[in-house]
Amino acid sequence: MRSGKLDKSITLQRSSNSIDDFGTPGASWTELATVRAEVIQASTEEFIRDGASDETVVIFRCRYVDGVTTADRVLYEGAYFNIKEVKEIGRRKGLEIRTVRLS
Question: In 3D, which of 48, 71, 46 has the Cα closest to residue 59?
């Protein structure tokens, strides 16, 4: 993985359950890691295969971060992206994170 392509900054966030002062459970997001990443838009083939949907698919490639799952999300340029798939690149060299932008 070439560091020159990692030109964007993303924040990986994890949901945690908490209970407020009134005893009501709620979810809050905590920062898991802030990493440098390469941002790749979905290919035309993926766009055609999925149909003309209104979802924005973005792929992030970054150095390996242990424990990233589909329950986490990505914060990039003020927008939140749900993680749909996480693939390991090599032997813990990096991650390819497929996401869908939240509306």
Answer: 46
User: How far from chain centre, in Å, is Cα 60?
Assistant: 7
For residue 85, the cross-strand partners are 98
Integer Cα distance of 81 and 29 in angstroms: 13
pTM score, two decimals?
0.81
Instruction: Note whether 1 and 35 are within 8 A (CB).
Output: no
Enumerate domains of the chain plus CATH numbers.
3-101 (2.40.10.270)
Q: Give the 3-state secondary structure of residue 48.
A: helix
Question: Can you read off the two tokens belonging to residue 24?
Answer: 């009501």
pLDDT, tens digit only, all 103 positions of the chain:
677 889 999 999 999 888 888 888 888 899 999 999 999 976 545 555 555 556 788 999 999 999 999 999 999 999 999 999 999 999 999 999 999 998 7
Separation of alpha carbons 14 and 34, rounded Å = 12
